Q: What sequence folds into this?
């Protein structure tokens, strides 16, 4: 049977275990406001029993481990949804900013300037010989072109801003993945699995930040190491104690940044593989969303130039001679094909050859920047072809014909669908508003979801001061009881020595 000395050690184990558990409670309380901190719990277990004959006697208590209270699968879900939230936030902010500019319905708006341009032909039809009205028409045409090009450049500037951000974001991603790999190394050398709670909290915080930058998939190995890939699975960012950098390179002179993952010297294309997070949103804005709005402006410009040019080059100037040239730039009439049979109309310009007409669905890329008033007309407004061939002096039929294009329901080829100018502009503004609201809705929904998940994680992993106070009182009582037990054993030892040791 264990003696009094054994009982002293039993009481001592209680003191040491309660004190260690109190230290854990104190650590929790000290980190109540620390971002990313996971509350810890002291796991106490009975010490190995001592056998005397056929009887097992307890030898006290020991602190077996300090466990972080975390839900690993909840963490993984938060990483995934965080990337979607930041991606939606970034898309909404950018599209909303563009919508406030391109959606202008005042006198400087696209619709108003196109209307003013066609009204210029209508005004000219009232006095075809008027030099002032011809000059006014050219001014309205130039104002319309400037307006379109200004809107187009706004989109291009937004693309440039997104591209500049991409390089900085790649640097942040590489820094975070390197730090996560270092923490993987630290965690993999734990003496007991799950023992280094603070390292795991640091890694969780870094992974939260990484998920905000780029969509990721995260898994955990048997050693507790994070394995991180892009959300598409096309490239590895972290595996075990190694991280793989993202590389940003420009595609040619003055081109946009293209991304690749450096897999040990082998570059894996990642530009189109990154879908979520701030980086994924920047790439999407630069390569898809803003380009789509530019395409609609190019289609508007193509509809303007093709219709007006084809009519203008067959009309008569003020002196009754055949114009033979386009209102915009210098069209070659020999390249104009009959579109009545559904074939595309090809018009050669000084800097490009573009196709217009039914059935052709090109984006007419860059058409807005190619659009310019024919310099010959600017120099000599009398060359504006207001009359039709065979018309009498003062004929205005060609001016009326060109003015009527404003109401032509098939004047613009919007992605293969014939539509009118007013409808095309309305579709652009509506598209901007719709996408802005969709991204706003996605952003709000994702914010609510992430907030709910974080609240759930906090309820599991966060520090609750009331709970810690209760634990502290329980441990305090345990410590006092162990101290009292030692005091009793001490008294018994003293009586034994004093009464039987004489």
A:
């Amino acid at each position: 049977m264990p003696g009094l000395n054994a009982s002293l050690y039993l009481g001592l184990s209680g003191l040491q275990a309660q004190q260690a558990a109190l230290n854990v409670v104190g650590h929790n309380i000290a980190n109540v406001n620390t971002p990313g901190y996971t509350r810890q719990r002291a796991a106490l277990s009975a010490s190995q029993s001592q056998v005397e004959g056929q009887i097992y006697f307890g030898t006290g208590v020991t602190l077996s481990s300090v466990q972080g209270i975390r839900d690993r699968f909840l963490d993984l879900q938060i990483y995934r949804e965080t990337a979607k939230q930041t991606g939606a936030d970034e898309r909404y902010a950018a599209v909303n900013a563009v919508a406030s500019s391109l959606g202008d319905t005042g006198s400087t708006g696209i619709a108003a300037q196109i209307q003013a341009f066609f009204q210029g032909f209508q005004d000219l039809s009232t006095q075809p010989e008027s030099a002032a009205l011809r000059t006014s028409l050219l001014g309205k045409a130039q104002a319309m072109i400037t307006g379109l090009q200004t809107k187009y450049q706004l989109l291009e500037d937004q693309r440039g801003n997104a591209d500049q951000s991409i390089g900085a974001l790649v640097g942040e991603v590489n820094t975070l993945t390197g730090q996560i790999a270092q923490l993987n190394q630290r965690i993999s050398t734990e003496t007991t699995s799950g023992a280094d709670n603070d390292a795991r909290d640091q890694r969780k915080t870094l992974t939260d930040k990484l998920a905000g930058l780029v969509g990721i998939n995260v898994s955990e190995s048997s050693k507790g190491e994070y394995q991180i890939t892009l959300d598409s699975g096309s490239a590895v960012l972290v595996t075990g104690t190694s991280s793989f950098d993202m590389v940003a390179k420009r595609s040619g002179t003055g081109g946009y940044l293209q991304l690749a993952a450096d897999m040990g010297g082998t570059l894996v294309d990642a530009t189109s593989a990154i879908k979520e997070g701030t980086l994924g949103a920047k790439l999407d804005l630069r390569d898809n969303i803003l380009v789509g709005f530019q395409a609609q402006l190019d289609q508007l410009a193509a509809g303007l130039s093709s219709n007006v040019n084809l009519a203008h080059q067959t009309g008569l100037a003020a002196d009754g001679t055949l114009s033979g040239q386009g209102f915009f730039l210098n069209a070659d009439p020999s390249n104009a094909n009959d579109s009545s049979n559904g074939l595309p109309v090809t018009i050669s310009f000084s800097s490009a050859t573009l196709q217009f007409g039914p059935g052709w669905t090109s984006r007419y890329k860059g058409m807005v920047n190619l659009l310019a008033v024919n310099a010959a007309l600017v120099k000599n407004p009398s060359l504006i072809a207001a009359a039709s061939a065979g018309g009498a002096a003062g004929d205005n039929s060609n001016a009326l014909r060109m003015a009527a294009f404003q109401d032509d329901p098939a004047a613009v080829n919007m992605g293969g669908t014939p539509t009118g100018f007013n409808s095309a502009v309305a579709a652009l503004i509506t598209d901007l508003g719709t996408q802005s609201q969709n991204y706003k809705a996605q952003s709000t929904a994702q914010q609510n979801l992430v907030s709910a998940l974080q609240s759930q994680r906090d309820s599991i992993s966060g520090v609750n001061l009331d709970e810690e106070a209760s634990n502290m009182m329980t441990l305090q009582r345990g410590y006092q009881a162990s101290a009292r037990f030692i005091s009793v054993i001490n008294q018994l030892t003293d009586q034994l020595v004093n009464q039987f040791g004489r």
User: Anything to note?
Assistant: The longest helix spans residues 131-188. The two ends are 25 Å apart (CA to CA). Residues 131-155+293-432 form one domain. The chain is about 55% helix and 15% strand.
